[in-house]
């Protein structure tokens, strides 16, 4: 059985391409996830108690088609795809369904959640009543969530300071999982900002995100000093480029620093007229590599 949630859109969710911004999709998934977990507890007759707390360990988000603003809600189906000793995985599909049953799928995603003890912040095992509550929505398979593996050499990476705001925090006083996508987005835009001038001789080329994976390593909390995001471009293909980033505790490029989160994002060159991916004109890729300089760790 799958849980269905109808998520309303807001005008503020839209980006400069008149699409729902990639960060907002993760916010929608959070709403759908909360509705699913509430349904699980209700169906199992389990009341919320002090141990019923979860943190997101990983998001794997695949963007399938642009979603534009409309006053009708968008549908999200969620189900349990894996249950392990100390974690469980939810799969999601964001879509619009026609009267004949056909679907336009905008996004597919996978979220790994881990239970923890609120008082201590320590991880714990899933309890039997939690497993029983998840069971009605289980479609267990062989496909497992994959770790987000990145290679971000600090001496070649672009640096961006991440300042946490009070409004970024969740009920556990950690930065909310959705905000990490926003941090990585801010860093990515700042790091690639040099391209605007370097590519001004070419036709304007937009880009959209095709894949965004984020691994949550340790909580980010509110503090006066900023955290640090390090970004490189690990691959440049004919129609896309891959951006890898880490958020860390330290600014010293020569030091390891504590890694708090990792991100790997695939950007696809996009034609705003046809609303499709596109291969840039001759010379664009070479100019791109030259403009990025040391940020490029592999041309692809």
Question: In brief, what are we looking at here?
Answer:
The chain is α+β, with helices and mostly antiparallel strands and 300 residues long.
What distinguishing features does this structure have?
alpha+beta, Thiol Ester Dehydrase, Chain A, 300 residues, single chain, 11-stranded antiparallel sheet, 2 domains, 11 strands
Task: Describe this entry's structure for a reader.
The protein has 300 residues and is α+β, with helices and mostly antiparallel strands. The chain has 2 domains: 1-145, Roll (Thiol Ester Dehydrase, Chain A); 147-300, Hotdog Thioesterase (Thiol Ester Dehydrase, Chain A), CATH 3.10.129.10. Helix content is 19%, strand content 33%. The protein has 5 helices and 11 strands, in the order βαββββαβααβββββα. Strands 1, 2, 3, 4, 5, 6, 7, 8, 9, 10 and 11 form an 11-stranded antiparallel sheet that branches. Strand 8 and strand 9 form a beta hairpin. Helix 1 crosses helix 2 (128-134).
CATH architecture name of the largest domain: Roll
Work out the radius of gyration: 20 Å
The number of distinct helices, counting runs of at least 4 residues, comes to 5
Strand content: 25-35%
Q: How many structurally independent domains?
A: 2
CATH class of the largest domain: Alpha Beta
Order of helices and strands: EHEEEEHEHHEEEEEH
How many strands, which pairing sense, and closed or not: the largest β-sheet?
Answer: 11 strands, antiparallel
Number of beta-strand segments? 11
CATH topology of the largest domain: Thiol Ester Dehydrase, Chain A
End-to-end Cα distance: 42 Å
- The CATH H-level homologous superfamily of the largest domain: Hotdog Thioesterase
> Outline, from the CA principal axes?
globular
Helix/strand/pairing class, anyone? alpha+beta
If you average the pLDDT, what whole number results?
Answer: 91
Percent helix: 10-25%
Pick out the low-confidence regions. Answer: none
């Amino acid at each position: 059985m799958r849980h269905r949630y109808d998520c309303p859109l807001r005008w503020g969710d839209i980006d400069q391409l008149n699409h729902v911004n990639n960060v907002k999709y993760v916010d929608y998934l959070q709403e759908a996830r909360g509705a699913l977990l509430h349904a699980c507890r209700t169906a199992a007759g389990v009341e919320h108690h002090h141990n019923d707390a979860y943190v997101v360990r990983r998001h794997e988000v695949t963007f399938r088609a642009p979603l534009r603003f409309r006053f009708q809600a968008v549908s999200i189906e969620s189900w349990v795809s894996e249950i392990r000793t100390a974690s469980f995985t939810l799969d999601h599909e964001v879509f619009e369904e026609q009267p004949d049953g056909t679907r336009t799928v905008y996004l597919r995603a996978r979220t790994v959640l881990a239970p923890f003890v609120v008082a201590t912040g320590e991880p714990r095992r899933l309890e039997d009543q939690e497993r029983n509550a998840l069971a009605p929505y289980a479609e267990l398979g062989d496909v497992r969530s994959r770790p987000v593996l990145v290679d971000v050499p600090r001496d070649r990476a672009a640096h961006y300071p991440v300042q946490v705001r009070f409004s970024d925090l969740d009920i556990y006083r950690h930065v909310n999982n959705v905000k990490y996508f926003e941090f990585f987005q801010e860093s990515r835009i700042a790091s690639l900002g040099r391209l605007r001038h370097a590519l001004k001789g070419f036709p304007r080329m937009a880009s959209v995100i095709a894949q965004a994976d984020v691994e949550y390593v340790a909580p980010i909390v509110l503090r006066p000093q900023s955290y640090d995001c390090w970004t490189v471009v690990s691959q440049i293909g004919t129609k896309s480029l891959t951006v890898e980033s880490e958020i860390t505790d330290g600014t010293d490029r020569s030091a390891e620093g504590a890694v708090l989160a990792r991100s790997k994002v695939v950007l696809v060159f996009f034609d705003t007229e046809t609303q499709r991916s596109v291969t840039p004109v001759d010379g664009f890729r070479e100019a791109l590599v030259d403009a990025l300089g040391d940020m490029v760790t592999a041309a692809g």
